[in-house]
From TrEMBL:
This is serine C-palmitoyltransferase. SUPFAM superfamilies: PLP-dependent transferases (SSF53383). Its cofactor is pyridoxal 5'-phosphate. The chain crosses the membrane at residues 20-42. GO terms for cellular component: membrane; serine palmitoyltransferase complex. It comes from Parnassius mnemosyne (clouded apollo).
Amino acid sequence: MDWSQYDTFHGDFEKCSLFIVVFGHLGFYLLMFFGFINELLFTPKVATERNREGYAPLYNSFEQLFLRYVYRRVRHCFNRPICSTPAAEVTVKERYTDDYNWTFKFTGTERRCINLGSYNYLGFAEPAGPCADAAAEAARRYGLALASPRAELGSCALHKELEETTARFLGVEAAIVFGMGFATNSLGLPGLLGPGTLALSDENNHVSLILGLRLARAAVRVFRHNDLVHLEQLARAAIAERRWTKIVIVLEGVYSMEGSIVPLQGVVALKKRLGLQLYLDEAHSVGALGAHARGVTDHCGVDPKDVDVLMGTFTKSFGAAGGYIAGSAKLIRWIRAHGHAHTYAHAMSPPMAAQVLAAMRALCTPHGLLRVRKLRDNTHYFRRRLREMGVVTYGHRDSPVVPMMVYAMSNVSATVERLTARGIAVVGVGFPATPLFKSRLRFCMSAAHSREQLDTCLAAIQEVVEELGLQYSRHR
């Protein structure tokens, strides 16, 4: 195909210098070496596997060494408890360790921080307002849970209304909702695919997609991230084999670790040209992209009916929990009959359904669409200011996920500690969620952030970047 007629730009991925690569590897291998010596001389204070003859080990030797001597050293920067709604500001519960991060104890104090870590793209995760009021009313009427799967006694009027509203919002015939976003993929794909199906999967797809494909027992071939030329090569080779009942492209709208956006126009053109099918995960893009908040289809100008399966979650842009699959009425009837999540998993909580309904209705009003525009403006401003600092950022300029590369796990720890001390709550990400030497900070933009809050965050980030020497970009 002639790809020059399509927008195939998916984001910026600046490579770091050889100096950073060499010294990053050297530091890591030294740390692992001393960890190995430590393990030989001292018995680790961890649980050990016993009576496991005939069974595969729960952890391989590298994972054990990594968890004990690398991850443990920075463990205080992960899994931090909060005690407030994850709005523009969040209250972090402080803790300390007296045994080198093996265990933690609460100090009894709390720290109020500007929140750059939560998936609250449109600011609907609020302690008060129409969404919170709708959720409270649903809890009073239906309770907090329905104690049953949807296929039994777990359906209520809110579910039906939400499914109809979701289908209208996305511009497709029908939709079905589930109580958990992760399970929407992991339990939905086995009902759609099976032996004899080939999935062409992006190398950076979320683990829920990977697990769903494994449970479906479908054959999987991986193409390079957002590389449409490589995808076309794999697709044509698979068609030439003449042994697959169907070939499905599986990808995401916005990639949560890279901040990149799928070049959807080109993917849909390839799908139509070769007669493929398309499964699109819009967990991070629905609500956050497009002039009407419809997601990456809206952003790329693609008819949503050209996507065979639209999947998304209510966790990010809608401030709730759960997920959906949308598409043709025939597709949704099939999922109701064959999807494990509808038959076996717990139904979506009524307060969550009410929260999503209120947020979705708001996005159909001019005031609600102001949130979408503010998110876009905040994203552009934040990314531009980071580039001016000389740090390496990944992804597309329109993506509300903004990864800042720090490369080493020690830099993750040092950066998170210093930003927290300055009242900025951020998320550090490292192996195994990223490649071993591509650790990063992941900032999540929100329409709830004011420009003053972003300026406060950027000033703190600049101080830390200069202190730690994180200006790795060669485009300064």
